[in-house]
């Protein structure tokens, strides 16, 4: 059985008891981590493909150690210009061992998804309530409002040519 899973922004083909070097993960040596962005899972002839990820699939792993990769030399040169730059880089890596691949029944963090769904509804309600407030304020004293607020109120009423108007002209257009 193998799976293609996204770990730290990269895709890996993993199998049980396989060692994989990935970009540095948060966690101490010996900690268990799980990855729920499984793109494909195959068990013999049975292949499950996600769109983009398989719901309920999860890959469990254990962090064995943190290390640095081999040094990579980056050398830049422009001939006849006297330009030479030499830099080195060592990538921080984490070695993990794949412990389990579960294709269904893994628990997902549903409360976060419900909270995200509830927020847009609340935002839509507040947006719907704001035009009513603007209509109410048009009967109030407009001289205390800023020019930007007056322009917004004029846009809501459908008054054209407000970009070149001064504050007094905006107040007059809104009242009349």
Summarize the structure.
By secondary structure, the protein is an alpha+beta fold.
Strand sequence of the main sheet, in spatial order?
2-1-5-6
Largest sheet: 4 strands, antiparallel
Output the radius of gyration.
29 Å
Please provide the count of β strands. Answer: 8
State the low-pLDDT regions, or none.
109-116, 132-138
Shape, principal axes of CA atoms: elongated
Q: Span between N and C termini?
A: 75 Å
Strand content: 35-45%
**Structural class by SSE content:** alpha+beta
Overall pLDDT level: 83
Helical content class: 25-40%
Secondary structure tally, helices: 3
Order of helices and strands: EEEEEEEEHHH
Polypeptide structure, described:
The protein has 176 residues and is of the alpha+beta class. The chain is 27% helix and 41% strand. Strand 7 (58-78) and strand 8 (83-102) form a beta hairpin. Helix 2 (147-157) runs parallel beside helix 3 (167-175). The N and C termini lie far apart (75 Å). The model is unreliable at 109-116 and 132-138 (pLDDT under 50).
Main attributes of the structure:
four-stranded antiparallel sheet; alpha+beta; 176 residues; 8 strands; single chain
Write the layout of secondary structure elements.
Layout: E1 2-7, E2 10-15, E3 19-23, E4 32-35, E5 38-43, E6 46-49, E7 58-78, E8 83-102, H1 110-137, H2 147-157, H3 167-175
Antiparallel strand pairs: 1-2, 1-5, 3-8, 4-7, 5-6, 7-8
